[in-house]
Amino acid sequence: MKKRILGLLAGASMLMPLSAFAAPVEITLWHMEQPPHRVARIQEIIDAFNTAHPDIVVKQEPQNWGEVYAKAPAALSAGAGPDMLFAIPDFTPILKNIGALTSVADFVAELDKKHDFVDSTVQSYSYDGGVWAVPLYNMAMSLWYRKSVLDGAGLKVPETWADWKAAAEKLSVDGTYGIGVPANKQLYTDQTIYSVMVNGGATEIYNEDGTLRFNNPQTVAALDYYAQLQKLSPPDSTSWTWGEAEACFVSKSCGMIMQFSVISSYDTQGGGDPADLGVAPIPHADGEKDHNTIAYANAVMLLSKDEAKRKASEEFIRYLLEPETYGKFLNMEPGLFMPVTADGAKAESFWGDPMATKYKAQIEQIIANSQNGRLFGFTSGRTFPSIAAISAQNVIAETLQSIVVGGKSAADAVAGGQDRMVEVSK
Amino acid sequence: MKRSLPATLLLGLSGLFLLLLIGMPFWWVVTGSFKLPQEIIARVPTMVPHSFTLQHFAKLLSGSDYPVYMINSLLVAGISTAITLVLSVPAAYAFFRLAFPGREALYRIILLAYAFPSIVVLIPLFGMFARIGLIDTLAALVIINVTFALPFSIWMLRSFFASVPKEIEEAALMDGAPPTVILRRIMIPLIAPGIASVGIFAFISAWTEYVFASVLILSDAKRTVPVGFSGIIGQYQIDWGLLLSGASLAVLPVVILFALVGRWFVSGLTEGAVK
Amino acid sequence: MQKSRSLAFAFVAPALLVLAAILGWPLVSAVLLSLQDVRTIGSQGQWVGFTNYSTVISNPMFWTSVGMSIVWVVANAALQTVLALMAALTLNQNFPGVKIARTWIILTWIVPTVVVVIIWRWLFSTSGGMINPLMMQTGIVSRPVGFFSTPWTAMATLIFINSWRWFPFIALMMLAGLTRIPADLYEAARIDGANGWKRFTRITWPLLAPTLGVLTVVGTLLSFNVFDIIWLLTAGGPAGGTRTLPVMIYETAFKGYKLSEAATISVLATMLLMAFALVATRWLAKEGDSR
């Protein structure tokens, strides 16, 4: 008995200095990629990282988009926040405002030298003399259709707004809807409207001095056009989020939809014939030449004030962006997340995935579309703190609703939308 | 006691209406959770499933910590119920029987606590709990649930006490028993069904609470069922099969619980202390 | 006497302390917050006096929300009372399976609200939902209906969903009231030759009225505070058609980053409800005394 205690003591005394010396740094990651299979994939990567770095322990805590707007600022101010947060550009001004962010310009420069970031992704986080987050994965809106359906109606892939509307009208037969565009007061609607706006020359919502220029003829024309498309959509599209649009397309109730990617649900629920799934850039206004779209460069924000935790977080991000791991990370949702680095776009770990192989043509098209990606409020360096409130309160979508639900003219609605933007910016 | 034909017809109709109103959604959800994805989103839905699969349940259980959420929810709801009863039974008895200054005013204030938009306290409470280290603990949820269940529980228990025939209590008083003994030996056993129904009320309130649990809990390992469930509602895709199986599983424990104690709830409410 | 008084306090104090700490203090800090100009949680604010109050009161959106909350509360009370009364009267009869029905009618209430939301969002959707095809098959409509597509239908649908969840609970409380009505009263009425409707209007209704009064007050307070069902289904839309006060408070605080303004709306909403509760409890107490 005595011997055992002695042995234990000896063991403990041997362990103690060792563990004190190398007490691993614990860092917490919050992200909003909550579907089970995404969480599982991120965990695999974390496990591999933790094994390779015995001095660091990364832990993930998936959060919900609906809750995180309330939770993150509250938790950070209470000192219970994460060390890393995967989020979208809209989120940065909020966190910057409460002093939770410091510039990561040097770190981004280091990674850029090694992996070569897609410029537009870094731009979304570069303003006020700093870079506020490290881009990680990109999403760009595209137009999805079934080749057999377009062929069956004798249609070509629409290039211009006129083509597009004609196609949507022609496809609206026999209980199906030619197109499904949302009109909910929700982020998805902001995204699809802006995708139409950038294709009609209404890219900027701010002037250079930070005053709003949302109320302009291009915006009016874009919203007017969008409202016409919405008339051809299912009646419940006023409450749609991404999932309903996808379900509508996959179940063949909608002829076309705008979406980041429908690949994984198309594959599991929609028949899964890759040859029939079509993806194209968003059509542009009749006077324009180029196709544009909305793109979300998701990024990681470093929130720890502790030097050791910061270093550990940086180490984890370096690991994520290595081509060997990066593709595995992006493929947590095949076809949804696009690489933000040049070497990532070529990585075997990305293209080697069975789904990426199966839908290679579509994924290449999405990457091509994402090259012209913009994000409202984060264009041409014209980023101002009020974009956080404008986007969180979905003022663009609300403007559309006052047309399609409230019955206003596009011009009145856009004027009202600008007033509302001014008001929420106060 | 015979019913007339129109009365029987009316009874049958309203019974059928209620059955459909309450039963149909559950039938659709539970059967839907066993359908293949293609059948769930088919343009012409099926009343009786044509396909059978367990893939949604398999995905749910392998990909998320649903069992952990269950245990958390049971813990929070169970402890909240116990504390609610321990606090509310004596309080209700005091409000019913014992004389003390400010009794009526205090009772009314407790009822006013109902009038509190719970969303109002969310922000200040977060700060308060952060200062005392209660963020991301199940204890925080217990405190919240007890607080919001108390006013209703006290109010209901008081009316149960009131339904006990006065003579029983007076007889005990004549024997010189102190209030604590009267409460423990006579009143509590008499209104046991009432206490059971208040307990079930507290349990269900805690079991279904979402807003506070979603904000006060930060880590996955401490989530309750409603918050865990909201987590599987994807942002960019809706996997109806997964959601329906999640919904079925979220309902299952309370259904089992109710199968065991449900009749107590109803008899407690309807009979109270009247024996 | 002295002893019983201290005992009474010992009985009441723990419950009161919990309520004071968890509800009382946050209310005070909400009032303090409403007098500052804090934007996000964690940032500092200046004292601005009653500026927020004048901003809120002069904001037409606030009054629209007040109106919506009133519509919400009244319609919920009405629908729940009708459904619950019907259910309670049915369950008060004797028929095969009534015991099972009395227990399981509560099924909708024991389901977490988040699950209720998903169930109905799915059932009402046009892709895969059950309601639209059913309505088309039975010929009620010829094209799918967007239940959440106009302010009024969205409000009506939400009221239906919320009532669906709560009416069985109210029904059981009513049933409790019904079972306390002595059976010999009905017997006597029958002997006097009163028909079913007469028995209902002369006996059931007057004797049930006090219970109904209490339930209406409690139900009003409960449904005023309903937030999660509305937020998760419509987030106050479309076009602001379902933005009740709790939704506006949440949106202002967490989407608009105007914490102090949200606190101001909260304080005003609380005052509104308190006034209602005060009047109602006084009225109930009077009713109780006269019984």
From TrEMBL, chain A:
Family as reported in the entry's similarity comment: Belongs to the bacterial solute-binding protein 1 family.
InterPro entries hit by this protein: Bact_solute-bd_prot1 (IPR050490), SBP (IPR006059)
GO cellular component terms, semicolon-separated: periplasmic space
Subcellular location: Periplasm
PANTHER family from the UniProt entry: ARABINOSE-BINDING PROTEIN-RELATED (PTHR43649), DIACETYLCHITOBIOSE BINDING PROTEIN DASA (PTHR43649:SF12)
UniProt entry keywords in alphabetical sequence: Periplasm, Signal
Protein name, entry field: ABC transporter substrate-binding protein
Signal peptide extent: 1-22
UniProtKB/TrEMBL annotation, chain B:
PROSITE patterns assigned to the protein according to its UniProt record, in alphabetical order: ABC_TM1
Ranges of residues in domain ABC transmembrane type-1: 70-261
A GO cellular component entry from the record: plasma membrane
Subcellular location: Cell membrane
Alphabetized UniProt keyword annotations: Cell membrane, Membrane, Sugar transport, Transmembrane, Transmembrane helix, Transport
Transmembrane portions of the chain: 7-28, 69-93, 105-126, 138-157, 190-218, 238-261
UniProt xrefs under InterPro entries: BP-dep_ABC_trans_perm, MetI-like, MetI-like_sf
GO biological process, one term: transmembrane transport
Protein's membrane topology: Multi-pass membrane protein
Function summary: Part of the ABC transporter complex MalEFGK involved in maltose/maltodextrin import. Probably responsible for the translocation of the substrate across the membrane.
Family: Belongs to the binding-protein-dependent transport system permease family. MalFG subfamily.
Protein name: Maltose/maltodextrin transport system permease protein MalG
From TrEMBL, chain C:
One Gene Ontology cellular component: plasma membrane
Membrane topology of the entry: Multi-pass membrane protein
Residue ranges constituting the ABC transmembrane type-1 domain according to the UniProt record: 66-280
Recorded family membership: Belongs to the binding-protein-dependent transport system permease family.
Transmembrane segments: 70-91, 103-124, 144-161, 203-222, 262-285
Intracellular or extracellular location(s): Cell membrane
Organism of origin: Metarhizobium album
SUPFAM superfamilies found in the cross-reference section: MetI-like
InterPro entries: MetI-like, MetI-like_sf, UgpAE/MalFG_permease
Stored Pfam families: BPD_transp_1
Keywords from the UniProt entry: Cell membrane, Membrane, Transmembrane, Transmembrane helix, Transport
Alphabetical list of PANTHER family matching this protein: BLL4140 PROTEIN, DIACETYLCHITOBIOSE UPTAKE SYSTEM PERMEASE PROTEIN DASB
Swiss-Prot/TrEMBL GO biological process terms: transmembrane transport
Protein name: Sugar ABC transporter permease
Entry-linked PROSITE patterns: ABC_TM1 (PS50928)
